[in-house]
Write a structure and sequence with these properties.
The structure holds 2 protein chains of 2 kinds. By secondary structure, chain A is α+β, with helices and mostly antiparallel strands. In chain A, 23% of the residues lie in helices and 25% in strands. The longest helix of chain A has 21 residues. Chain B is mostly helical. The longest helix of chain B has 18 residues. Chain B is flat, with a radius of gyration of 12 Å. Classes of the chains: A alpha+beta, B mainly alpha. Chains A and B meet through loops of A and helix 3 of B.
Chain lengths: 389, 78
């Protein structure tokens, strides 16, 4: 990680107070490109961040290049079905290896000098490396020149990576949430084309997290939900240092014109008959679980003031032909809800350019999940700065 | 003969047909080897191997073996 000496980090001490007296993160965390780079190292590369979906490499041989905070990554499905993530950079001259998603019948061949890597990352051939027609050289031990593997983990259909390699194992880092949602640890089935979509939003990535994890805004921003899901039907979810979000007691399944419904996950406890939860898995993955479907939003922080939201809906069973129309309607409804949030996160982004805004205050009753996220980011930045000294 | 091969190779490179490239470079290697031009043969065999690997073709093992026999790559690398 490059730790460039920059201006002193913004003071986040007020963020670390109790929610009743805390302020939000300073404006620089939303508008300053240097702070954005600082967050890359201190927050996004240092923890388990989402970069895409396992369904993006559905079968052996599929590869998908991803650029995450400028870093070229490659998601690979090996012949044995295992999924790995590599730095998408040839060990020879640093050329980008794979430019477009697709299916490879054989090795990963660098388009520059044709160094070839297996799907497990091992360097297999270095053509002409010892001169024309000579494919070995005493100075190069190819067993040490495989692709750089990035720690990865798949959960709830999302591919998580820990770029700096120093975070605790995913299962350890997210043990409380894995336990909380253990009933949903089941095969997920990607919906059809309508079930995956992206929103390109003029906002800092954190504002998408902040808006997602609280229910305070629901009656104002999503009035359509009011008819059955009132504010008092929701509860806060706060796990210090790990995640936050909101739950509802009144989730209602979508029904088709003939009364048809999507298939439920098997074996769920009574809580989930009408319960649903929506949790931000820090730093950049937003998840929802309901009796008949889950969804994931992976936030791609393109730059300080632009975020691409990659959204995928997953079902408990493959969507059969008779449920396709219902699944499409379901996807359209979710898309509508997520689009309703765009003006808010873009509006808060513009608001953050108000030089007299002090980070704002939190409602201790309603904004606990949001403050929990601010607190986590502040603690991450602070501990990283301390470690770098 | 080589003119025909060169034309075919350029065409196969143009279409990115790895299987075809592996076959054509193997043919070029065979011709060079028959003429006793071992360095040229190994050059072509190297290209044939690369494209066979890219295509996932079974011929890669044999091509690697031929290069190893000429000490142009370690044995049993594949």
């Amino acid at each position: 990680m490059d730790r460039i000496n920059r201006a002193p980090a913004p003071d986040v001490s007020t963020v670390l107070r109790d929610v009743s007296s805390a302020r939000g993160l300073p404006n620089a965390h939303y508008t300053d490109a240097d702070v954005f780079k600082r967050e890359r190292d201190a927050v996004l590369f240092r923890n388990w961040s989402g970069i895409g979906f396992a369904k993006d490499v559905p079968k052996p041989g599929f590869v998908k290049p991803v650029t995450f905070l400028g870093m070229p990554l490659l998601i690979v499905r090996d012949r044995d079905g295992s999924l790995r993530v590599f730095q998408n950079t040839c060990r020879h001259r640093g050329m980008i290896l794979v430019d477009a998603p697709g299916h490879l019948r054989g090795v990963i061949r660098c388009p520059y000098h044709s160094w070839c890597y297996g799907l497990d990352g091992r360097l297999k051939v270095t053509p002409h490396v010892g001169g024309p027609g000579i494919n070995t050289h005493a100075a190069l031990d190819i067993s040490t020149l495989g692709l750089i593997q990035i720690r990865s983990h798949v959960w709830m259909g999302v591919v998580f990576v820990n770029v700096d390699g120093q975070a605790p194992a995913f299962e350890q880092a997210h043990a409380p949430l894995l336990e909380r949602w253990s009933e949903f640890d089941k095969p997920l089935h990607a919906g059809g084309a309508a079930a995956s979509f992206t929103l390109d939003v003029a906002t800092n990535w954190k504002l998408a997290v902040e808006n997602y994890c609280e229910s305070y805004h629901l009656p104002w921003v999503h009035p359509g939900l009011n008819s059955y899901s009132r504010l008092e039907d929701h509860y806060n979810i706060i796990e210090r240092g790990a995640y936050s979000g909101q739950g509802t007691y009144v989730y209602r399944q979508i029904k088709g014109d003939r009364g048809e419904m999507l298939t439920d996950f098997a074996g769920l406890s009574e809580k989930w008959e009408t319960g649903a939860e929506y949790i931000a898995v820090y730093p950049n993955v937003l998840l929802g679980v309901q009796r008949d479907q889950t969804f994931a939003i992976v936030l791609d922080p393109v730059d300080c003031e632009r975020t691409i939201e990659r959204i995928a809906l997953f079902y408990a069973a493959p969507v059969t032909a008779d449920l396709e129309a219902l699944a499409d309607r379901n996807a359209a409804q979710w898309k509508q809800v997520f689009k309703e949030d765009v003006f808010v996160v873009e509006g808060m982004q513009r608001g953050r350019h108000g030089v007299h805004f002090d980070g704002g205050r939190f409602s201790p009753a309603m904004d606990g999940p949001t403050h929990n996220f601010h607190h986590w980011v502040a603690a991450q930045v602070q501990s990283h700065a301390g470690a770098a000294v | 003969m080589m003119d025909r091969l060169e034309t075919a190779l350029i065409s196969a490179h143009g279409s990115g047909d790895s299987n075809r490239l592996a076959v054509l470079y193997t043919e070029a290697a065979d011709l060079a080897e028959d003429a006793g031009r071992i360095d040229a043969a190994c050059f072509y065999l190297t290209h044939a191997l690369v494209f066979a690997l890219e295509a996932g073709a079974a011929s890669a093992t044999q091509l690697a073996g031929r290069l190893a026999a000429h000490n142009r790559m370690p044995a049993a690398r594949n």
